């Protein structure tokens, strides 16, 4: 039957890694799973988050997958199949990769008869949907248009009207995808896969909502220009005060003097001796406890980044 390839796409910080952890823990425990994780940036973070699953992770740090289709990405899949022989490969593209290019890369793999493109998820933080549409229209349209299943995250920050408006926006682009609009923390990974496979008979109605469009309008292809993203990152032995790290990202979000920062993530040690994992997206900053690391890691992604100013902020 060959190797199944699942793609978990979505914009920066939308919750792709959270979804992957859930479906691995709940649905793929008996399968041999490999992850190809594409880190855009100078310092890899998500590999640290996923490594405790005892799953092989091959990271590509040379840029987004859409820039690596002729080399690293296809080679990584071929190498994993040859060396590891998994039942399933999960591809987590960078949040600034075009889903259409990732799909194209999968289809061009030399051993394509041995793989089957299975689930195609796009994860959308609907609290930032307006920002996606206005500032990153090309990536937003591409990721929605090519998905088979759309997962809404951070719906707790939106009321029912805002959620339904988000559904209407998605349906203007993709009339066929299943939409999951229930918080991931109350969803079982098996239920998510059943929605993706449209096997609704095995799911409690109150737990999920599957929407089908009644609109007869077809999605229109939109041709837009490309944006250029940049990254800055470092490994550090510096110990931080929790107030300082919060103030850094408050300043990043308000002043824009370091550029248009779209994503920040990392692990740092606090002066209390604890380690924390941090995640920043526009309008949101989260901290949570982390296990001790060999070194702190900081990764920043955005447009027109001033790397010198970032280095001063984190000094």
Outline of this structure?
The chain is α/β, with parallel strands linked by helices. The chain is 30% helix and 27% strand. The strands form two sheets. The chain has a seven-stranded parallel beta sheet with strand order 3-2-4-1-5-6-7, sandwiched between helices. Strands 8, 9, 10, 11, 12 and 13 form a six-stranded mixed beta sheet that branches.
Fold and architecture overview:
The chain folds into two domains: 3-207, P-loop containing nucleotide triphosphate hydrolases (Rossmann fold, 3-Layer(aba) Sandwich); 230-313, 2-Layer Sandwich (Hypothetical Protein Yjia, Chain: A,domain 2), CATH 3.30.1220.10. The strands form two sheets. It has a seven-stranded parallel β-sheet with strand order 3-2-4-1-5-6-7, with helices on both faces. Helix 1 (16-27) crosses helix 8. It is globular, with a radius of gyration of 19 Å. With 315 residues, it is α/β, with parallel strands linked by helices. The termini are far apart. Residues 64-70 and 202-226 have low confidence and may be disordered. It has ten helices and 13 strands. This is Cobalamin synthesis protein. InterPro entries: CobW-like_C, CobW/HypB/UreG_nucleotide-bd, P-loop_NTPase, Zinc-reg_GTPase_activator. Pfam families: cobW, CobW_C.
Any chance you could write out the topology, listing elements then pairs?
Blueprint (H helix, E strand, L loop, with lengths): L2 E8 L5 H12 L5 E6 L7 H5 L5 E5 L11 H13 L3 E5 L6 H9 L7 E11 L3 H7 L1 H9 L3 E5 L6 H12 L6 E3 L8 H8 L33 E7 L2 E2 L1 H14 L4 E11 L4 E7 L2 E7 L5 E8 L3 H7 L2
Helix pairs in contact: 1-8, 5-6
């Amino acid at each position: 039957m060959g190797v199944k390839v699942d793609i978990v796409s979505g914009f920066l910080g939308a919750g792709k890694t959270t979804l992957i952890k859930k479906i691995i823990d709940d649905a793929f425990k008996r399968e041999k799973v490999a992850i190809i994780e594409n880190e855009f940036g100078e310092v890899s973070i998500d590999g640290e988050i996923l490594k405790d699953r005892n799953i092989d992770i091959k990271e590509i740090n040379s840029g987004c997958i859409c820039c690596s289709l002729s080399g690293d990405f296809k080679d990584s899949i071929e190498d994993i199949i040859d060396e590891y022989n998994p039942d399933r490969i999960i591809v987590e593209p960078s949040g600034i990769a075009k889903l259409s290019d990732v799909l194209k890369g999968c289809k061009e793999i030399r051993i394509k008869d041995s793989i089957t493109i299975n689930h195609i998820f796009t994860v959308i933080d609907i609290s930032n949907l307006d920002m996606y549409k206005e500032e990153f229209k090309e990536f937003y349209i591409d990721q929605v248009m090519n998905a088979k299943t759309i997962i809404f995250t951070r719906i707790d920050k939106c009321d029912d009207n805002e959620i339904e408006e988000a559904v209407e926006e998605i349906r203007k682009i993709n009339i066929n995808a299943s939409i999951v609009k229930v918080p991931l923390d109350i969803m079982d990974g098996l239920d998510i896969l059943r929605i993706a496979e449209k096997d609704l008979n095995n799911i409690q109605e109150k737990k999920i909502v599957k929407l089908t469009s009644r609109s007869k309008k077809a999605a229109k292809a939109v041709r837009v220009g490309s944006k250029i993203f940049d990254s800055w990152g470092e490994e550090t032995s510096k110990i931080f005060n929790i107030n300082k790290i919060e103030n850094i990202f408050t300043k990043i979000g308000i002043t824009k003097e370091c550029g248009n920062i779209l994503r920040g993530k990392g692990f740092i040690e606090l002066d209390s001796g604890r380690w924390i994992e941090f995640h920043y997206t526009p309008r949101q900053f989260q901290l949570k406890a982390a296990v001790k690391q060999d070194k702190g890691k900081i990764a920043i992604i955005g447009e027109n980044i001033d790397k010198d100013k970032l280095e001063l902020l984190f000094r």
